[in-house]
Amino acid sequence: xxxxAVELKxxxxxxxxxxxxxxxxxxxxxxxxxxxxxxxxxxxxxLSCLQSIYKKNDLDNSGxxxxxxxxxxxxxxxxxxxxxxxxxLVARYSDPDMTIDFDNFVGCLMRLEMMFSESLKDLKHLxxx
Length: 129
Fold this sequence. Notes:
single chain; 129 residues; mainly alpha; Recoverin, domain 1; 6 helices; 64% helix; 3% strand; metal-binding
């Protein structure tokens, strides 16, 4: 069964619209395209797993994560990043007030997963693993 990014966006936005404990402006087309592309690769995290990580690390229950909360959430999701990479991700995915909403959190982790899985494929292809 195939789903388009537009269809996924509609479904995801209906789901998160019912949630009052998670803040988002809705899933962007970019995030949904990334999710659709990752379905072909290997989606390690289910949406419920990502939601659990997000909620666990939203320590102040604001519905968004601060940058320190985000660092711990990345580790919980299996990504230990150096400061430079972390700062680049914060600059790319956080709002002007330096918080990250659920849509941007999912989009960021999906892209990280895609990059890491592609890098691992390249290493296997070159017999480095």
